Amino acid sequence: MRRLVLSFLVLVNLVGCGGGDDGETPPLDTEKFDMKWGPVAVNPGQENTQCVDLRLSNTTEIKVHQMHNILGPGSHHLIVYKNDDPAAVERPTPYDCQPFTGALNLTGMIAPVMITQKADDDLTLPDGVAYTFSPNQMIRLEQHFINSTDSMINATATSEFYAVTPSAIRDEANILFIGSPDIDIAPGASFTLEQFFTPDRASLDLTGAKFFAITGHTHQHGTNVQVQIAKSVGAAKTSVYAPSPFTWSEPMTETHKPEFMLPADQTSGFNFKCDYTNTSNEQVGFGESANDEMCFFWAYYYPSKGSHVCLHSNDFGNVDICCPDAGADLCNRVTDL
Q1: Which of 77, 149, 194, 321 is deepest in the core (most CB within 10 A)?
Q2: Where are the beta strands (DSSP E) in 45-98?
């Protein structure tokens, strides 16, 4: 992953706020649809990312207001995508797939609707907000798994979708995925990465976007993730994500009631910070493997202005980039991360 994100960045270089913890999830008792990934036998030390593509059993259009993911042993994370590509076909047997490929799809027809790092994870959207699923909606489940035990395990995942009355919905939800590849940690060392992502510099207009949930993401050396919003770099900051403690393997999703918005300024954005302690004897850099590191957060918001994967990098010219907006020449490189 590190190799191609670097080439990607080198080419680019030529308000009110409330917060809380996970809280008590409302009962999941509306009309339910579900699908499964696996089981897949995973040998000791094996790591991979595999996908399935399946059609949901809904015969009419539905408004999905709640989701529930259940992950079996060995799961690092699961991404649930809505796939609106009319040419998509079912692939029920897990197959090797490139991580985050759906999120970077240039057609705009494939987009993540939920990302899970917990063994049991619920997502309830705000009142009046949902994802719209077409009849027999095609869904992609992408699971990154690793077996760190001495015995074979069976990796599994189940995703449940809960539909509500369409007349109760006024807005469509979506996800932003924001982070940086500027990670380089010496053996036994501590390291802090703190950067500022400005959507306007990445040609991403978030005017009117209301953010209702945020989750931080590192791998095993991560000890903390914090996210703040500000009018500009160096300006006063408002915290929107600061779990204490931060648990890298099952990071908290911080919900916001009421939702927060970015300050109304072209220089406004997200200040994000990740702390690490490298307990290994190897140099650790950015990468998708569980033995590499990442510094990302994903933010659920509405009304939808599309799904975007965004990067800031100081190492490669102080750039802000979003895909698929950056175009095929750049974003195709990211799909090979």
Answers
A1: 321
A2: 47-55, 62-71, 75-83, 91-96
Tell me how crowded residue 329 is: count the other CB atoms within 10 A of its CB.
10
Positions of CATH 2.60.120.230 in the chain: 2-21+174-334
182: nearest Cα among 284, 39, 282, 51: 284
Are the CB atoms for 53 and 139 separated by under 8 Å? yes
CATH architecture of the domain 2-21+174-334 equals: Sandwich (2.60)
Please give the pLDDT value at position 76. Answer: 79
pLDDT value at 333 more than 70: no
Q: For residue range 283-313, what is the model confidence (pLDDT) as tens digits?
A: 999 877 777 888 999 999 999 998 888 989 8
Other beta carbons within 10 angstroms of residue 291's beta carbon come to 14
Q: Tell me the C-alpha distance between 277 and 140, whole Å.
A: 34
Residues carrying CATH 2.60.120.310, the chain: 31-172
Distance between CA 47 and CA 65 in Å, rounded?
A: 33
Task: Tell me yes or no: is domain 31-172 CATH 2.60.120.310.
Answer: yes
Q: How far is CA 104 from the centre of its chain?
A: 12
Q: How confident is the model at residue 69 (pLDDT cuts 50, 70, 90)?
A: very high
Work out the number of other CB atoms within 10 angstroms of the CB of residue 1: 19
Given the DSSP bridges, would you call strands 319-323 and 308-313 parallel, antiparallel or unpaired? antiparallel
